Amino acid sequence: MQSETGDNQCAPFVVQEGNAPYSHLSNRLLLYSTHIIRLSATLPKTEEALHIRRQLLRSGTSAGANYQEACGAESRSDFIHKMQIVLKELRETDYWLRLLDASELAPHPRLSDILQESDELISIVVKSLVTARGNAHDAK
């Protein structure tokens, strides 16, 4: 979202891996997308896995793109709407990840880490929405 001075409210990308902290939501969503891409590449070449792979790639990579759209929102209500889309995509991705885990289609060693990151991102976006809605209410 644009500040009153016209500055973009989203932090720039600084991609970091491993134990290095990456606190900006833009970075976390970008890394999350890369983990989804890598995970999907390890899935078996079965019809079932192909279906899940496509859904996972679509929702898992769109959350970050939609967040970037939210950063350029034209109004608070536009920001809230776009953040709701981010939340929807994260929840869908979380579902596909849990399905992979339950069906044992992804014996990927980092699946539990990706699931944890999914939960954390959902929490962050929910809190952001609560704050944005509260600020919108206070502005009235």
Can you characterise this structure?
The chain has 140 residues and is an all-alpha fold. It has a domain of 93 residues: 23S rRNA-intervening sequence (de novo design (two linked rop proteins)), CATH 1.20.1440.60. Helices cover 71% and strands 0% of the residues. It contains 4 helices and no strands. It starts with 24 loop residues before the first helix and ends with a helix. The N terminus is likely disordered.
Give keywords:
140 residues, mainly alpha, de novo design (two linked rop proteins), disordered N terminus
Just give the CATH class of the domain at 47-139: Mainly Alpha
* Distance from first to last alpha carbon: 18 Å
Radius of gyration: 16 Å
Average pLDDT over all residues: 86
| Element pattern in H and E | HHHH
Please give the largest β-sheet.
none
Beta fraction: under 5%
Pairing-aware structural class of the strands and helices?
mainly alpha
CATH evolutionary superfamily of the domain at 47-139: 23S rRNA-intervening sequence
Q: What's the number of helices?
A: 4
Instruction: Choose one word for the global shape.
Output: elongated
CATH topology of the domain at 47-139: de novo design (two linked rop proteins)
CATH level-two architecture of the domain at 47-139: Up-down Bundle
